[in-house]
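TL;DR need structure tokens for one chain.
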Amino acid sequence: MENRMIEIVAKNNNNVKLGLIPGHFATNHSHVNYYVDMTTTKTQYRAAREAARELAKFYAQKQINTILCFEGTEMVAAFLARDLSENGGGMNSGQDIAVISPETNMNNHMIFRDNLQKHIYDQEILLLMSSVSTGKSITRCVECLQYYSGNLAGVAAIFSALDEYNGVKIDSVFSMDDMPEYKSNIPSECPLCASGAKVDAIVNSYGYSKI
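>> reply
TL;DR here they are.
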């Protein structure tokens, strides 16, 4: 599949790139016609730093106490926390910002241990996702945040197919403007399934597994 990969570049930063593989892919919530490869952005120093630099522009004038990481975005979050804290004149300038990730228990519920709850309770929380296609993961994250009495300050993603979800604005480096042919459908309404096309791979935030 890798030989089919197409590379796209962020509009405002040539150092931020994504790989797109066309095909038929199944996620937990939907079927999509492109696998969006964020491996470089989530794992390599320079790419993560530049993606964080772009996201920081959305939050320079918004109070952020904690960045809550999902889908392997910890490296991007660390750079984002640094940029917000060191941005002279910004609302978070000189402030410490926590970077944490939830734990999943045996019932697949997101939890925070007692020692981390201080970074959630009554704090301004930024959710950081790698990608948003249907928005269902955001609902789960927000419910977890509400349970621990955190305040949602914003939702950020490297790529989002949605501008907002349930009234919550989603800020992203890449959007549907960058990949207008990207489609996400619930499995029962997938046109690729209807045409008889086999699923190429199962995908999640860790990557893909060919079938």
